[in-house]
Design brief:
It contains six helices and eleven strands. The protein has about 220 residues and is of the alpha/beta class. Bound molecules: 5-O-phosphono-beta-D-ribofuranosylamine (GRF). 5-O-phosphono-beta-D-ribofuranosylamine binds next to helix 1 and strand 5.
């Protein structure tokens, strides 16, 4: 059995990706283990999911801090109490400071509901429909100082159907998020996934293409 890999998850909302991670990491043979969930919102449903799974939780309300730097410093303190090998952003609706991102360089993952580098930012499903794209999807990436811009690990492609609305598309993309995020976390926990010194992403000591590993329909 490989060494357990402690993961801290940060979220602000529903936490369906957290649930997918909990379900995957409690399966036998998965070395990743969610050891704490931290939210900036006390009402985030993801905290309920964590408590139900017996996982430690903490709330740090960003409104109680004077500025982004002070909040992120406190957040680092709360995360590092758990000495995680990996920090996972799962719908954490905060822009992180460069100091925070640097502190977790190579061990901070995010998931974004688009085929990055397309559609950084919010309302991705609506923007894809407005543009008339034939394909959409989701991406897991290492976090760097550029918002939604870090090196890609894994993408899942979803076909856009003619009758799709932002809600139907979001639902299908979400279902793929719940597959690819646990997979990326498992790769990391198994020591197979690394951010190399040259900024490339390596899986099993091979550099991945710029798109990361792509899973189609
Ligand atoms: C997901 O769409 C993810 O891609 C984005 O935030 C959303 C979180 O959803 N970063 P949930 O809270 O995991 O359901």
């Amino acid at each position: 059995m490989p060494q357990p890999c402690n993961v801290v998850v940060l979220l602000s909302g529903t936490g369906s990706n957290l649930q997918a991670l909990i379900d995957a990491t409690t399966a036998e043979g998965n070395p990743a283990r969610v050891c704490a969930v931290i939210s900036n919102r006390a009402e985030a449903y993801g905290l309920v999911r964590a408590r139900e799974a017996g996982i430690a939780t903490a709330v740090l309300d960003h409104r109680q801090y004077e500025g982004r730097e002070a909040f992120d410093e406190a957040l680092i303190g709360a995360i590092d109490q758990h000495q995680p090998s990996l920090v996972v952003l799962a719908g954490f609706m905060r822009i992180l400071t460069p100091a925070f991102v640097r502190h977790y360089h190579g061990r901070l993952l995010n998931i974004h509901p688009s085929l990055l580098p397309l559609y950084k930012g919010l309302h991705t499903h609506q923007r894809v429909l407005e543009a008339g794209d034939a394909e959409h999807g989701c991406s897991v990436h290492f976090v760097t100082e550029e918002l939604d811009g870090g090196p890609l690990v894994l993408q899942a492609v979803v076909r856009v159907d003619s009758g799709d609305t932002p809600a139907t598309l979001a639902q299908r993309v979400h279902a793929r998020e719940h597959q690819i995020y646990p997979l990326a976390v498992r790769w990391f926990a198994e020591g197979r996934l690394k951010l190399a010194g040259d900024g490339s992403v390596q899986l099993d000591a091979q550099a991945l293409p710029a798109s990361g590993h792509v899973i189609r329909h």
